[in-house]
């Protein structure tokens, strides 16, 4: 049996799983990330956090690792609004809180829109844009890894992170919330990502074919 990976490959723009509406998940489920052995939800969450840290991100949704379930991980860093993916500062040393949310339901508690922060996405590496309209404050109801129902209030940058990750569970990218010409400005980069996404899926299918032939 294959060993569990230390980190997962992050799916890129153009991968169909990133446009699918994710399904509910329960803490007792067994999940299979494509290319990896079956794991518990907690094991998947732990590996997602490691994947997020290695990619120097603030959040990662399950569809971004090819798993179409309603689950995301996120962190609150010290000075998180100044998070810079180009720095070499160990992220774990700056973590204030870690979050693992199953089946999150987000409610806006402050409808005033904030467009001040620059936003990016681990599935669209290298592209950052300001002006993404996000509610200033939200409430999130979710299930934790122990099956307990939780409610969390978040404002400003953390509220933005939760909105971004919840969008992923509905197949929405941050670029979708900006005028179409912004996406068009990045057409060449996005086309390159789409080609990489297609090649990754082809390689994954070929690896699975080989695995089945060896088992058969």
From TrEMBL:
Organism superkingdom: Bacteria
Cofactor note text: Binds 1 Fe(2+) ion.
Binding residue positions for Fe cation: 121, 164, 168
Coiled coil: 183-210
Active-site residue numbers: 165
EC numbers on record: 3.5.1.88
InterPro entries registered for this protein in UniProt: Peptide_deformylase, Peptide_deformylase_sf
Reaction catalysed by this enzyme: N-terminal N-formyl-L-methionyl-[peptide] + H2O = N-terminal L-methionyl-[peptide] + formate
Cofactor(s), by name: Fe(2+)
SUPFAM superfamilies associated with the record: Peptide deformylase (SSF56420)
Enzyme class: hydrolase
Alphabetically ordered keywords of this record: Coiled coil, Hydrolase, Iron, Metal-binding, Protein biosynthesis
Family recorded in the similarity comment: Belongs to the polypeptide deformylase family.
Record function comment: Removes the formyl group from the N-terminal Met of newly synthesized proteins. Requires at least a dipeptide for an efficient rate of reaction. N-terminal L-methionine is a prerequisite for activity but the enzyme has broad specificity at other positions.
HAMAP family attached to this UniProt entry: Pep_deformylase
Protein name: Peptide deformylase
Upper taxonomic lineage: Bacteria, Thermotogati, Deinococcota, Deinococci, Deinococcales
